[in-house]
Amino acid sequence: MMIISGMMLGIIYDIYRVVASQIYFRRWLISSLDVVYWILSTLFVFRMLYLSNSGEVRFYVFLGLTLGIIFHYVYFSPLTIKIIILVIRWIKALIHFVKKLFSIFIIIPIKMIYRCILILLGIIMAISIFLCKFMLQLLYPIWRVLKWLLKPFKTNILKWFRPILKRFTRR
């Protein structure tokens, strides 16, 4: 049981080592993950020890763990590392594929709709500006006539309000 536990510790350590080398972790996080690895491996070994011989710690426990780790590193470590790297490549390819699908089916259509709305609003704005200018040109002669007609009233109204305005501005 301890030889198998030693092999499992080797496999888990290979997984941790390869993942840590493939993915960028900050230095403080690597130290924290080391501590987590050793805590979990200790709990695993003591659980296996408790299941196999009621938790008795003897010399053959350490011998079995050491033999299991050595056996793993001699025979299974290169294969384990290749498999882990292959799995990481598959996961990266899957993530890239999902990102590409997300971009094609969600991001690009949203951008296209946004651009179409901007073009439509630009066309509406250009048409409204054109219509406003056109209406102003049509109403300009009427405005000149109204201005000419209201010119006498403008001067009379100002004459009426000048004394009132002077009272308020003196204070």
Entry keywords:
171 residues, mainly alpha, 3 helices
Share of β-strand residues: under 5%
- In angstroms, what separates the terminal alpha carbons? 104 Å
Which runs of at least 5 residues are low in confidence (pLDDT < 50)?
none
Query: What is the SS-derived class?
Result: mainly alpha
Helix content: over 70%
The biggest sheet, with number of strands, parallel, antiparallel or mixed sense and barrel status, is: none
Shape: elongated
Rg estimate, integer Å: 42 Å
Total strands: the figure is 0
Order of helices and strands: HHH
Count the DSSP helices. Answer: 3
Averaging pLDDT over every residue, what do you get?
A: 88
What can you see in these coordinates?
- The chain crosses the membrane at residues 30-50, 57-75, 81-98, 118-143.
- It holds the Pfam family Spore_YabQ.
- InterPro entries: YabQ (IPR019074).
- Keywords: Membrane, Transmembrane, Transmembrane helix.
- This is Spore cortex biosynthesis protein YabQ.
- The chain has a domain at 2-97.
- Helix 1 packs antiparallel against helix 2 (27-53) and helix 1 (2-22) packs parallel to helix 3 (59-170).
- The chain contains three helices and no strands.
- The protein has helices at residues 2-22, 27-53, 59-170.
- It starts with a helix and ends with a helix.
- The mean pLDDT is 88.
- The chain is 94% helix and 0% strand.
- It is mainly alpha-helical and 171 residues long.
What's the arrangement of secondary structure elements?
Layout: H1 2-22, H2 27-53, H3 59-170
Helix pairs in contact: 1-2, 1-3
Brief summary:
With about 170 residues, the chain is mainly alpha-helical.
